Amino acid sequence: MLKYLFNFIIFPGFLFTAAVGLVASWIDRKVTARIQWRVGPPWYQPLADLVKLSIKEIMIPRDSYKPAFLISPLIGLSAVILASTFVWLPNLELAKTGFTGDIIVIIYLLTLPAIAIILGASASGNPLASLGVSREIKLILAYELPFIICLLVPIIKSNGLLRLGELVVYQRMNGSFISSPSGILAILVAIFCMQAKLGLVPFDVSEAETEIMAGTHIEYSGILLAVLKLTRFMMMVVVPVFLTTVFWGGFSVWKYVVLLVIIILMRNTNPRLRIDQAVRFFWGKMAAIAVIAVLLSVLGE
Amino acid sequence: MSLKLKALTKSIWVYHLCTGGSCNNCDIEILDLLTPRFDVERFGIMLVGSIRHADALLVTGSLTLKALECVKRVYEQAPKPCLVIAIGSCACGQGVFANGPTTPNPVDSILPVDIYIPGCPPKPEAMIAGVVKLIGKLKEKK
């Protein structure tokens, strides 16, 4: 029991993932600045932002539905902490942890932060937030389809293993899925879905700062905003680590850095897509590639 | 206490409020601060889209009667502690609009302005110097 609490709160769960997430978001901002020929913020900048936000006043809009507005950031944070614990543990202790079907639980947990944002923003009673909510809902509908289809590939290739630890062991024995054509196609789709899950630039329609002023986050202030930002930072760790675990034979630092660099470069070299373009992209090209990957994996490629 | 102050001064998110009567020159100079030449993000200063995220209010332009209520409401919506920085001659005094019939109120008659940065428009260097002085003032006060 105590070990589970330790796992949840300190080592692979909350504190550790939050620390890695802060570093990752600093790397993101620094590399972005260097790409734009700027100097960029110092290393403690994300931490300073969070500390500052947590000592500011919390404003609750008059038109809001208070319980949902206040609790939804915590729902997102707890979901991402649980997901990070589930994703890290199989990489650390192999087949001893987890349970059959935990990969499905993780898929649900990774969707929960977006659902929580939808709940909180639509409870805030702001018209711009409701615009952001409608975009976020469409984006979830768009990227979940190819994401789930491409996650079928490792399951089919390992003859139906639904446990993250067993998938890692299988890849250690038989080579990682990414070395086969279907695995490459699947991780390609998964990387685009990851970008949309993280809400980064080509797919950041729900909080487009220049159009709808932070959209879904518009009414949040103080520590609630800090929790939302922390959730975002932690997602930046959990989703890449999940992809390396499922497709790439387990976590290692350089694999995580490669995925982070891909995220940052994609974010800096692309303009924002409209929501109809994003939906067309995911339901058209990406879903087609994911289906091809599944067919290839059924054929044993 | 010192940790609080450090966090506040190391991460100032600014909200840009044009009070209606501005000629947009100051606003363009503010955007200059974000470009590679000045890059205020290295001090943790960011431009945010929503007033709820702001730590400082950049007020530009002379305050028109129509904008008066809106400016008041925007300041009331900002989570405290919130600084107010008046940028440009119009916002500091009333500039050339001092005798204008539609701009009878100076900005500091309705907002508690923390620092004035004069100029028409002020140079980006002047704005950075102003923010540095403001941070020094905050550190003295606490």
Q: What does the model show?
A:
The complex is a heterodimer of chains A (301) and B (142). With 301 residues, chain A is mostly helical. Chain A is built from twelve helices and no strands. The radius of gyration of chain A is 19 Å and the shape is globular. In chain A, helix 8 (181-198) packs antiparallel against helix 12. Chain A has helices spanning 2-9, 14-35, 45-54, 66-93, 102-123, 127-157, 164-174, 181-198, 209-212, 222-247, 253-269, 275-299. Chain B is an alpha/beta fold. Chain B has a single domain, classed as 3-Layer(aba) Sandwich (Rossmann fold), CATH 3.40.50.12280. Chain B is built from five helices and five strands; from the N terminus they run H-E-H-E-E-H-E-H-E-H. A five-stranded parallel beta sheet of chain B has the order 2-1-3-4-5. In chain B, strand 4, helix 4 and strand 5 form a beta-alpha-beta unit. The longest helix of chain B has 18 residues, at 124-141. Chain B is globular and about 45 Å long. The mean pLDDT of chain B is 84.
SSE inventory with pairings:
The complex is a heterodimer of chains A (301) and B (142).
Chain A: H1 2-9, H2 14-35, H3 45-54, H4 66-93, H5 102-123, H6 127-157, H7 164-174, H8 181-198, H9 209-212, H10 222-247, H11 253-269, H12 275-299
Chain B: H1 2-10, E1 13-18, H2 25-32, E2 46-47, E3 56-60, H3 65-77, E4 83-87, H4 89-92, E5 115-117, H5 124-141
Parallel strand pairs in B: 1-2, 1-3, 3-4, 4-5
